[in-house]
Amino acid sequence: MAKHKRPDSLAIVQRAIGRRITWARELVFPNQSECARLLGVDASTLNKIEKGDRAPSVFLILSLSNRLRVSTDFLLKGVLNGRTDGEMALRLAALHPELVLQQQDTAFHMGKNTPCDMPEPPRRPEGDHS
Known about the structure:
Layout: H1 8-28, H2 32-39, H3 43-51, H4 58-68, H5 72-77, E1 79-80, H6 86-95, E2 100-101, H7 103-109
Parallel strand pairs: 1-2
Helix pairs in contact: 1-3, 2-3
């Protein structure tokens, strides 16, 4: 099967995903080879992904998300949300102000709980007013 050049729009997205992987990885694993080993991929594969020369698989995105304590939304779209570790989100936002912090995250990081952060309170049975 002949290889075809990706459309420029997809290449741009691929490079952006690689850049965000690099940003998060450098905060958790300064050594790219060590991170690749823990992920079970070759170091050259991770290097190509971070440079934007290769697209990561969905399974690698899931593994990276878990290992780097960031959401898949961050890796794929650059959006920091409640599924990203709070400390990691603050560090990423401080280093890369172009990242998008969703409104619920700013409340979460200010010590306020939003409805999606808090479990629903237990309900009393009808007629129980104790």
